[in-house]
Amino acid sequence: MGAVIVGVVLQIVSGPFPMELIKFPVNFILSLVLLILAVKGGKAFHGSAKSLKFSVFLILLLTVQVLIMGVMPDNRIKDSWPFVITYFFILADLSIVISERLKKKRRNNLGFLLIHAGLLILLIAAGLGSADKIQLFLKVNEGESVRNGYDRLTGKTYQLPFEIALEDFSIDYYPDRSIKSYNSLVTLKNSDGEVKKWNIRVNYPLRYRSWWIYQYSYDLDKEVDSKYAVLQLVRDPWLILAWVGMFMLFAGAVNMFWKGGRP
Amino acid sequence: MIWDKFIYFALASIVFWCIASVSLYISKKRIATHFLMGTGLFIFFLFIVLLWCENGYPPFRTVGETRLWYSLFLIIVGYIIWLHWGYKWILSYSVLLASVFVIINLLKPEIHSSGLIPALQSFWFVPHVIVYILSYALMGAAVIAALFALAGEGKKDIELTPLIDNLVNTGMGLLLMGILMGAVWAKEAWGDYWAWDLKEVWAFITALTYLIYIHLRRMNYNLKISFFVIIIAFVMLMITWLGVDYLPSAGQSIHTY
User: pTM for the whole thing?
Assistant: First the structure.
């Protein structure tokens, strides 16, 4: 284990972890390997005591890094090599404990599997999958339409598979003048001429295929008279897998709540 | 303004709950305790319902409003635990803690009469907060039980271990539900189900620390150290709940309203 940490520290010198490294199809292949390991994996630990010990070590390792994240402003822990390596170790460990548990056929296997497999799937989607995520912003004037999004990370513009027209931007107020909602009434049109109309508000994004389109900003100086809206567009191809993981985890959490301390 | 009359509802509830926790120790029959607890709960809940009606939205927006729910669920959880395991002290403790929250509300009402801000207008708002409050109440009870176990000599920890395990596992289940509902909500509101927002980071740390306890218990690790982990976890929980805004890394957390 010491060797791992020393290796991790040495890696820091080479700068943040390059996410491009695990873009599709690399992340897809890695995920398949992990899932096959989880179902068919061999014996990695001798006895569950050692396996538990290793899991606790990994959780501790992760906790320490997240703690630094929580205390230090503007840190880049989540892009660092130690964090990414810990992440991969956790994925591998989860796969192994799942495969070992599958062989045992113990009581309450279901609760255990829901939690651990759900977590594995969610972590795959959230980590490996995030390499394929696209986040764009676009500014659109009232009465005009736009079909390019701007990627703030790379500074590049990205051609969208549809165009968005802003019909009207408005702000609703409560009687005491505090803000009730920001509304962008938009029309989305794809190349086949398919049209979707939606009032984009905070908490109510427009969903089109794998794209989620959010109200992001507006002309802050003119407020209610703003003539444009800034929209945020997110495409996460791994989102469905994340939902599956979350659903399994939730079911596992309900099971935990019900059973309490009985293993 | 129904808040102006809060003091009558609050004091009535506290009086009923206090008498109830005294009746636990002097009366052999449980019926008196049930009646007193029930009446106190009814009065307190009635206030929340009236406030809800007056606001026109569920009272979850301000710290003051969340304290109302915290008191309510502390009492309910303490009551259920007493019914289930027969620990009298936990009911008295929950009455004490609930009263503290009520008194804070009386002395420092962070109350606004304005409507919900856009970010909070979501289906997930109520369940997300309720589940967390319930979880916090259970974890609060767990840390007290852990302190009792650590303070007591020899026997106490063995007696209390099943209770502590039940509390932490039940609380962890709720904690997980809370994080997951928050994640779905975040996807709808901010574009991503996990954004390393400071509140998320600390909620994550809290969950990880409880996770360490749960795994240590599966290992049958040293009990004293395991219970010590619960105390650390509860400190993390408190930072998540109240302390995040004061951290140097708070910057622009989207959880500060």
Answer: 0.86
